[in-house]
Design a protein that fits this description.
heterodimer, A: alpha+beta, Phosphorylase Kinase, domain 1, Transferase(Phosphotransferase), domain 1, six-stranded antiparallel beta sheet, three-stranded antiparallel beta sheet, 11 strands, flat, B: mainly alpha
Chain lengths: 778, 205
């Protein structure tokens, strides 16, 4: 029987006003389809008898019944040996009660977990059984123990676990106003518990604040193994089980339904630690977001460093106060190592996180002992990524410049065709760059490929993509090769540049300037390989081929670069000649700030300090005027070098503010714990020593010695000079016999190291160390 | 992670997840709705204990408003909420009915807390065994209806269990009020016929 037909007949018939009319329809239908007629008759009869059937909503009735369903009515009753005293919470799958077992002279309290009445699906019962099975294997002071378990008369499974009279870990830490160090200690308990789970092949999978309670004695207890799992369970749990986990603390692989591993718990611990330290979670999930948006946020967007997220938090002053700190001090403490450790724990790619909870704990311990952390390597990759993003923009701009040049050429008719070809070439280049750029975009899915890898892939792509377009291929290889040089991928860069050179030399219609640029890149390659003579010769060849038709800015750049090579060779006067040529060719270009610095450097080398001072000052003035548009890092160098010149002239008081400004610029550009900042701390500290201000020097020198080991090994002259200068400052300042003894020991070590490698180039430092040691022994 | 005291965020998120077919989200959202309905049932709309004279729709609206406090919601969320509520209420009644019948065998669960805790649950209305049997039969008849006339069955859930009016149901289902009225008449007749077939007495509210 067709239900739609029946419904239609019913609608029509029921609307008829008299029973006679209905009967006529039914009789007619009887003849055609007796079964349908019978059904319709029954429906109409039911309709007539329906009265107020279903007219009053059952909602109030249900609302009044609800408390029973929550299980509150179980309070006071017994399950097994346990008497249920109170409802602690009702969760998705069950209710947790506070229960007590009364024995001879003792009363044991427990948290008794029971499947919610009416929700006893086979799946849920199986999950309960699994939780019980997993808990039975666990024995750790920071994990709630399984005390008892069984099945009610109705067949509902239940578990009795340690009753933890405590607060969620974040609430506890805030109530007690725990400092950062205390929070790290508390977190370590949790990490230890999770590590112990991993040892017996269990993953927790749902690490979050409310699953970690801390009791009055300050002992953390991990709870809720509702979705925990055995690592060796081959059958992957149903997607719905995985998706039950809380959004805010879910790892990307959990949201994507991918493989779960111990790295998932590393992530969960990362979220916990981040929030515990910074007072805000790594991701701000708002009500406006759909599940897909939340998933995209967690899977694709990097969290802000905790030190920055903290500053953006609403009650930032409260957050700091609850950590017994000030906003500035807390941000300072998070910045650097802790930010780096959290970034590694929260990495999107499980393989890029800490390999184990033990590794995470070890790095946190290293941090607390002020030793270099292992996570550093990763963050350097991040910085390279950031650098490359900037660089790709430069490349795109190059392509755009070529494009606009091509358009400008289209004046004469005979040129039009050529111009079109060039324009097309520029456009093809542009889109190719866009494509590669998308690859390198750190915000795109596969953000951790290094730019080197991207460029290597791009080079491979070039091999096949532009076979019939040699000019385009050459332009692209020249650009890509240039970036490879800046990234110090010298071999990769050389391959592309040599190929570009060969293509251009074979092609009659080749753009002479592109060929010159390629040759100039190859000259720079020799400089990077420290073949200064060959570099100089190659540059001079390029310059010999210059004609006035060549772009002046381009020619200036080549003179400048040759000047840098010559400074490296300490051919000061020749360097000055080429830098001056660069200044003359394109005096207003922003790149000339670098030329001015190079001029200052060269005059400094010649010993003409007044000239050097003049150029440095010009560079600084220009860089200040350029602001963001200039190369900010150049300003740091110019300020330092200028200060250095002043200091050589005995004008330390004027040098100091320049050094300090350089330090501040370096902080902003390279980050507070960068190698560059450490070098500047060293310069500032040593200047202050010269100025007989050892009290002020101590902090700078300590910072230098703290940061250098991350980037340099013990044999580095920077680190060595840092250590001896710090020791000197301590000896001038401190009366503490232990500190003095340690400082003397440092000087002895440094002197011994100088003696051992006998590098005469550093003799002035060696002499200084000896003098200081002798002075200290006096 | 779910910040304590910020249920509303979870509800909205979960409602969306649930409406896109995530059964796990349903398991999460139901207890919240239970809880809210219970609180309203206990205190009434104005927060005065004992006054349980609510219009059905007011009750759901109130629950919705309370759950969605401090969060921007849209009509879509509201619709999901009605659908979830219908499911919740239907399950509440079915569970209660089953237990009412089971109680004959097992009196244990009737033990009630007798202290004067203001948070103590209100006593459950006594459900007659006949009413319990009716609800169980209605539930299975509704399943049957859903197999043949899914739209009409959904309408019954919305109107009977979620308390929506004809116009609200029409808006929710994106059909005209006239269609809702036709479907409603048809669905009631169909269910009543199915219930009489299975031998149940006609049902009162």
């Amino acid at each position: 029987m067709d239900p739609d037909r029946l419904a239609q007949l019913f609608d029509e018939t029921v609307a008829l006003s008299t029973s006679a009319q209905r009967e006529a329809v039914l009789e007619h239908l009887d003849k055609q389809d007796p079964a349908m007629a019978a059904e319709l008759r029954a429906l109409l009869a039911a309709h007539d008898a329906s009265g107020d059937f279903l007219e009053d909503s059952a909602l109030n009735e249900a609302a009044a019944l609800v408390p029973d369903l929550l299980g509150s009515s179980l309070i006071g009753s017994s399950i097994g040996p346990w008497r249920i005293d109170a409802l602690i919470q009702s969760g998705g799958m069950g209710s947790v009660f506070e229960a007590v077992r009364l024995g001879e002279g003792f009363a044991q309290r427990a948290a008794l977990k029971l499947v919610r009445l009416g929700f006893e699906s086979p799946e849920l019962i199986a999950r309960f059984a699994r939780e019980r099975q997993l808990l039975a294997r666990v024995d750790h002071p920071n994990i709630a123990r399984l005390l008892d378990g069984g099945t009610t008369d109705d067949g509902l499974p239940w578990l009795a676990m340690d009753y933890v009279d405590g607060l969620p870990i974040d609430t506890y830490a805030d109530h007690r106003r725990l400092s950062l160090v205390q929070r790290l200690a508390l977190f370590d308990q949790v990490a230890d518990a999770i590590a112990s789970l991993h040892q017996i092949l269990i993953t927790h999978r749902d690490i979050k604040m409310s699953n970690v309670l801390v009791d009055k004695q300050g002992r953390a207890k991990v709870l809720d193994f509702g979705i925990a799992s055995l690592l060796d369970e081959t059958a992957s749990p149903e997607a719905t089980v995985e998706r039950r986990i809380s959004f805010g603390s879910a790892a990307p692989e959990q949201l994507r339904g991918e493989g779960i591993s111990t790295a998932t718990d590393v992530y969960g611990l990362g979220v916990l630690l981040y929030t515990l330290l910074a007072g805000v979670p790594p991701y701000r999930i708002t009500t406006e977001m759909s599940a897909a948006e939340i998933e995209a946020l967690i899977c694709d967007v990097d969290p802000l460093p905790a030190s920055i997220a903290l500053r953006k938090a609403g009650q930032v002053a409260d957050i700091a106060a609850m950590r017994r700190s000030s906003v500035a001090r807390l941000a300072q403490a998070l910045r650097g190592d802790l930010d780096t450790i959290l970034a590694k724990a929260l990495h999107k790619d499980p393989l890029r996180r800490y390999g184990s909870v033990a590794d995470l704990r070890a790095d946190l311990q290293r941090y607390q002992q002020r030793r270099p952390i292992v996570a550093r390597g990763d963050s350097r990759a991040y910085r390279v990524n950031r650098f490359i993003r900037r660089h790709w923009k430069g490349l795109l701009a190059t392509a755009a410049v070529i494009s606009s040049l091509a358009v400008g050429l289209g004046v004469a008719l005979w040129q039009a065709d050529e111009a079109r070809q060039q324009r097309d070439r520029a456009q093809a280049m542009n889109s190719f760059m866009q494509e590669v750029l998308a690859e390198a975009d750190p915000y795109a899915a596969d953000q951790d490929r290094t730019v080197r890898e991207v460029l290597t892939d791009a080079s491979a792509l070039l091999d096949e993509r532009f076979v019939s377009q040699p000019l385009l291929e050459a332009s692209l290889r020249q650009s890509v090769g240039g970036v490879q040089l800046t990234l110090l991928d010298l071999d990769g860069g050389e391959r592309n540049l040599r190929r570009a050179q060969a293509l251009l030399e074979e092609t009659v219609a080749a753009d002479a300037e592109v060929l010159l640029r390629t040759r100039a890149h190859l000259a720079w390659l020799e400089y990077e390989r420290e073949n200064y003579d060959r570099s100089r010769a190659a540059y001079l060849d390029v310059i010999a081929d210059f004609t006035p038709a060549h772009n002046a800015e381009f020619r200036a750049l080549i003179h400048n670069d040759l000047g840098v090579v010559l400074v490296g060779m300490e051919l000061w006067q020749e360097a000055i000649d080429h830098q001056t040529a660069a200044m003359r060719l394109s005096p207003e270009s922003p790149d000339r700030t670098a030329t001015l610095i190079n001029l200052g450097h060269a005059y400094d080398g010649l010993g003409e300090l007044e000239q050097a001072r003049r150029y440095y000052l010009q560079a600084i003035e220009r860089l200040r005027a350029l602001g963001e548009r200039g190369v900010i890092a150049d300003l740091a160098h110019a300020l330092n070098n200028y200060g250095n010149v002043l200091s050589q002239k005995g004008r330390n008081d004027e040098a100091l503010p320049l050094y300090l400004e350089s330090l501040e610029v370096r902080r902003q550009v390279f980050g507070p714990d960068s190698d560059s900042v450490a070098s500047q701390h060293l310069n500032v500290g040593r200047l202050l020593l010269d100025m007989h201000r050892p009290q002020d020097a101590v902090g700078h020198l300590a910072a230098a010695v703290r940061i250098f080991p991350r980037y340099r090994d013990e044999s580095s002259i920077y680190l060595r000079v840092g250590r001896m200068s710090q020791a000197r400052a301590v000896l001038l300042v401190s009366e503490d016999p232990q500190e003095r003894a340690a400082a003397i020991a440092t000087l002895e070590t440094v002197v011994a190291a100088f003696d051992e490698d006998g590098d005469m180039r550093e003799s002035r430092f060696m002499d200084q160390a000896r003098a200081w040691l002798a002075d200290a022994r006096r | 992670m779910a910040a304590p005291g910020n249920k509303s965020r979870d509800v909205t998120t979960l409602l969306r997840a649930w409406s896109s077919g995530d059964q796990a989200a349903e398991h999460e959202v139901l207890p919240l709705i239970y809880e809210e309905l219970r609180r309203i049932a206990r205190t009434g709309l104005n927060g005065e204990a004992g006054s349980i004279t609510l219009q059905a729709t007011d009750l759901v609206n109130e629950a919705y408003l309370r759950l969605s406090q401090q969060c921007e919601t849209n009509w879509q969320d509201r619709q999901h909420f009605f659908a979830v509520t219908a499911t919740v209420v239907r399950r509440i009644l079915l569970d209660a009915a089953r237990r009412r019948l089971a109680d004959k065998r097992d009196r244990r669960r009737e033990v009630m807390s007798l202290d004067a805790d203001p948070d103590a649950p209100i006593p459950a209305q006594a459900m007659t065994p006949a009413r319990a049997a009716e609800l169980i039969d209605l539930d299975s008849a509704l399943d049957d209806l859903s197999a043949v006339y899914p739209r009409q069955a959904h309408l019954v859930e919305l109107r009977y269990f979620s308390g929506l009016s004809v116009d609200e149901s029409a808006a929710y289902l994106s059909v005209s009020p006239a269609t809702v009225k036709r479907d409603w008449v048809m669905a009631k007749a169909w269910l009543l016929r199915r219930l009489s077939e299975s031998g149940s007495a006609p049902i009162g509210p």
